[in-house]
Write a structure and sequence with these properties.
Low-confidence stretches: 1-13
Number of helices: 9
Mean pLDDT: 93
Structural class: alpha/beta
Radius of gyration: 18 Å
CATH topology of one domain: Rossmann fold
Number of strands: 8
Length: about 290
């Protein structure tokens, strides 16, 4: 029997997994939300979105290890295993014939997770994502007024706006040819739509920051060999222009994909977790 979201949130010091589309018209049974809950009442909640170029998910360094760390700091963490194109698609490009997974599936999954967590907790709720997952959480922070679950007949009675957004070495632009991460763009849009300029622009997040965008904690490394560091600089500039409270940290070295895995971190990137906690404490103190 599946654990209900209510029981999932009531569990203490445990890990439990929920199929978030169960009982709806969406048949994405592999989409799950796994809870990592602290002892006592959490001071905040965070939905964690691992990266993987919208083709796969790094569920350890950017998922489980992140959630375990957050739970150890008194924060309820929920790892979202959202829909991706798949490793086979990366090789075979089957979505030229079949639909497969593509936008807006991924953001619908995240909005569903936000809805379910919000319905059962009153504490501040943020979203944290890595690489392509950073693009996904920033999409949630910018397009929260659009209900991407509507095609499944779901009209949430709670806000879909995250209270804060944490993009870590994120993919941001889908339109700037100088900096775009082509594999993530392909994974999100699918082959027939990659050349659609209007669609690329609509999901280039540096173009859609609003004055109501939530506070942002942004970080990356200048030597990132996967996602060009200018992605984060584009977002930083857009947040600054819109007057959005945010912190942007750029490390000189550290690369990509380190998440919360000490084995992948260097002396610089090992500091990002403590920096985030200090930022979050200051943000919560303002409420």
């Amino acid at each position: 029997m599946l654990i209900t979201i209510g029981l999932l949130l009531a569990a203490i010091c445990t890990q439990a997994q929920e199929r978030i589309w169960e009982g709806t018209s969406c048949k994405a049974r592999k989409v799950t939300l796994t809870a990592f809950l602290p002892e006592g009442e959490p001071r905040a909640a965070v939905i964690v979105c691992p990266g993987g170029s919208y083709h796969w998910l790094d569920l350890e360094a950017e998922g489980t290890l992140v959630a375990q760390w957050l739970a150890s700091e008194g924060i309820a963490a929920y790892v979202l295993q959202y829909r991706v194109a798949g490793k086979f698609e990366f090789v075979a490009k089957y979505r030229t014939i079949l639909r497969g997974n593509r936008h807006p599936d991924m953001i619908a999954d995240l909005q569903r997770a936000i809805q379910l967590v919000r319905e059962h907790t009153d504490c501040p709720l943020g979203v944290m994502g890595f690489s392509a997952g950073g693009h996904l959480v920033m999409t949630a922070g910018e397009f929260y007024t659009t209900n991407f679950m509507e095609r499944y007949g779901i009209v949430p009675q709670v806000s879909l706006r995250p209270d804060f957004v944490v993009p870590v070495y994120p993919v941001i632009t889908l339109s700037d040819a100088r900096y775009v991460h082509k594999r993530s763009r392909l994974g999100l849009l699918a082959e027939p739509r990659v050349s659609n300029r209007a669609l690329r622009d609509s999901l280039s997040l540096e173009k859609h920051v609003k004055r109501t965008t939530p506070p942002v904690f942004l970080l990356n490394c200048k030597d990132d060999p996967i996602v060009d560091y200018h992605n984060s600089e584009l977002l930083d500039s857009a947040l600054t222009a819109a007057g959005i409270p945010h912190v942007y940290t750029q490390y000189a070295t550290g690369g990509h994909g380190f998440g919360a895995d000490p084995a992948r971190q260097n002396q610089d990137t090992a500091r990002w977790q403590d920096s985030f906690l200090r930022w979050l404490d200051a943000l919560l103190d303002q409420e």
